[in-house]
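hey so u asked for the seq, here:
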Amino acid sequence: KLKRLDKINDDVNELKESVKFISDQYDDYTVKMDQMQIQVNQMEVRMIKKDLVIDSLLAKVSDLEKKNRVNQIEINGVPETVNENCVAIVEDIKKELLPDAVIVIKNAHRVGQRRAGFNRSIVAELDKEGNRQLMTDTARKSKTLNAAKLHNSWPNQPIYVADYLTSYARELLFKAKLRAKEKNYKYVWVKHMNVFVKKDEETKQAITIKKLEDLNKII
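ran it, structure tokens below
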């Protein structure tokens, strides 16, 4: 009986040692996992900071590009035809919107790759920034500007005149619209090549979206 008890005690002691070993191993594993999580968190913070720096640089580049576009407008909805005269088309649009205004169309051309069944945008350079703003503001308020008014063989489809945004500003506008929809904001618009967002008619102050970080202001 004593031998059996000794054997049981030995087994119990071995079991205790095994449990202690496993427990120590688990503690070491937990410590290592905690250390790894800290490292991952630190890397995430560094990546966020890096992304913010990159976004800030992209915003600055976009601001520089805007200076080259202060007199330019972008027109969508105009059917594309062979041997068309884009300057004449823009002049006709100007006459529809502002028949008495003196606005010089310095040049105009289509932008983007040709695609079947798709009308490319027309980009036009005007004589001064004030006229760019005048045309875009008037077009935004117009309810009657359409292709059929310019040419009787063209469809009765709306024509849109807007600021010629940089690719970065387009991304801001797209993401601002998504965020505004998610947060139930009613108004997203562009003025002076900047993106603005407003909750509703009762909201006095609009939010200016100049960089991706500003999207977090839409709450």
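Strands lie at 72-76, 105-111, 121-126, 160-163, 187-191, 194-198, 207-209. Helices lie at 2-67, 86-97, 129-141, 147-150, 167-182.
lmk if thats what u needed
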